[in-house]
Structures are given as C-alpha cells and as structure tokens.
Amino acid sequence: PLYLAYDGRLTTETREEAEWLIRAAWAYDLTLPSGVYSSEDREAIETRLLWNAVEVIDRYRRTRTGHTWQARHNAGIGAVAFLLSNQEWIDEVLYGPRGFTALFPALLRADGLSYMQSITHHNSSNIAWLYLSEAAYRSGYDLYGFTSNGRSLKDMFDAALYHAFSNGEHPIVGHASPGASLGFDWRYAIAYKRYGDPAYAWLWRHAPHHASPLLPEVFYLADLMAAPEMERLTIGFETFGKMGINIAGSTWFQDTG
Fold first, then answer.
1. How far is residue 121's CA from residue 126's CA, in Å, rounded to a whole number?
2. CA distance linking residue 235 with residue 105, whole number of Å
C-alpha cells in the first residue's frame, strides 16, 4: 500500500527515489568488474537495494497526465533493468502503457517543447528521457532514432535553442526559473555524440557552462573537441515580422509592429 501520497522511502517522492537509484545503478555497474563484491554482497545489493527500490517506485504509477513523474520512474527502473538484464522490465519501460513509446509522444508539443511550456520543466523532462535513452542505447535499443508524429528526442534538445531570446535568456513561462538561460551542460555532450549536430558543440565552445554534477561532459570530451566549428549559432527567430505571429516556445505572440 501507499504510505504517503508520493510514497518515497529514502526521499519524500518516488520521483526522487528514481534519481538516487540511477546513481546507485551507475556506481554498481562501474565497480562490478572490479571483483570486490562477494556473491553475498551482490545478492544484498541487487535484491535488497536495487530491486527493492524498483518495487517502491512502481507502487506510484503515473500515466499520460503524470508522464514527467513516470519518465523519472522509467529512468530509474530502466537503469536497473538494463544493468541486470531483466527483459520483462526492459519491455515495460520501453513499450508498456507507461513506457517510452507511449508517453514520450504525448510529452512534446509541435515545436518540441514540453507540454507544460516551462523551460525548466522541459529540461527536467529532457534529462529523464535522456537517462533512459542512454542506458537503452548501451544495451542495443536506439531510442535516439525513435520518431512519432515527425518528432524525436532531438527536438527536445533543439527546442531550447529556438526558445531562447537572442541574448540567450529564456522567456519565463509557467514555473520556469527566473534567469533561466541557454547554456551548455552534460545533456548536449551526449546529444552531440548521438546526433552529431555541430550546434551542440558550439554551445560547449561558446555558451556559459551550467553546473553538470550528474554526468561530467569529460566522458565525451574527445567527441566535442573533434566537432567542426560553427562561425555563429542562430537561435530564436531573430526578427519579428511586422504584424506577424511569431513563436516563442509554445506561446504565440502578436507582433506590436
């Protein structure tokens, strides 16, 4: 049964439980080949920590109306499923009714921005789907190439470029953080590795670097350094046509002339 509304154990919410579970799965994956774990250690870690966390997270299931939460759940559960090669859970987080192929298409508006329109919310959703996509990619599943209604995960990366004003600042829509601005973080390192768009490398070379505590871009440094240089990056729509209608994120503005 659910003990609290969001049913966390180490944290208040299952969404945050998924965050630490991703890190725990990564740490276990990186240290497993070292041979430091006994069979008893592995049993304890895999059964009493990783799979137990999956059970806790899965108690609070979300569907289309809560796919931001479920995206985090899928990333946490997927990290464990791919690490421990559990096909049933892999199929669930990819193809199930709450999986990637069901919820990701419902997330994006026509311009690639998250349906909640806030750039802060958009970036948070982008991170969640990226966690799952990278784990899947390293296990032979290419979510980066998945498209629905002509949109893919790449549209989420591109949307932030077109959402920003010419000075790099984002419109404060919904619960976006004041001062939100376009910059480089670890997401664009992976995005360049997977999509090869030089615009992402341009951000690394020229844009402010936002803190990257989750996955340092040093892992992808060689790819970024080898990327072709762009003379300039065009962001936003640059001009407002007289009496025209222009898109800024998901909001339509009437030009005042």
1. 9
2. 24
